User: Fold this.
Amino acid sequence: MNNRRLTQVIFAGTLIMCLATCGEKEQPANQDQVFDAYLQLKRIPIDNPDRVAVAKQEYEERGAITAAIENKNYLDTSLLDAEIEEYKRELLISRYFEKYLMENVTEQNVKNYYNANQDRFESEKVRVSHILIRTNNKMSENERNALRSKAYEAYSKLQSGEAFEEVVLAYSEDRNSAKKQGDLGWLQKGAIDPMFSQKIFSMQEGDVSEPFASSFGFHIVKVVEGPKKLKQPYEQVKGDIRYQLRQEVKKAEMERLLKEAGIERGDGAGNG
Assistant:
């Protein structure tokens, strides 16, 4: 909850309790209970009589001012009542779900979900290095053929025994990866250019491909590690799991409460 929202909530709670103390029908016992709740709201310890006394004076003064304003009929009280009621509803719903979700989406729930859905947190990855000869859509066929020949020239260097790292420095136009000997790191299947992905995941560790085309240009790829399935660690994904579970649990409880109240929610209704 952000500071602005917290201020609104505290204001609403205080306003509701102050107005509740202004009616003459309230019994002294109820007034004491409301004031005790006010102290809790303000986080004033009851064993600190000096602070309690100051709070009591401020509380009574605000109550008196509120009563005086009400008696003046200066404001549209129906609008004020509606605003107070809306704040109360928001506060009740917010506090209810804050407690409900804390009790029903625990650390153990999150761990259980992670353990029961291992496949959702696994992905097939491969670590590759490449040599890239760039192309673009504006090139003529002759220009593309010249660059294809350049890629095969680099490939022939590799076939003759020249180190991949040296050929990278001499030919690759991907300067970022060239600084790392052509290393692109771990790439996830399906998360990159389709042609590139299809090629590298059909290779085995240590393989070096012939030049092939993608939307970026002509590549020569060396598989450094993999392909292998890698699992995301629990600590990395627990926040996402907790968020998902809280959304699901909140939606289910919201629907249960509405059903309990005799209200059927339509398919197009929001989650609140």
The two ends are 16 Å apart (CA to CA). The chain is about 60% helix and 15% strand.
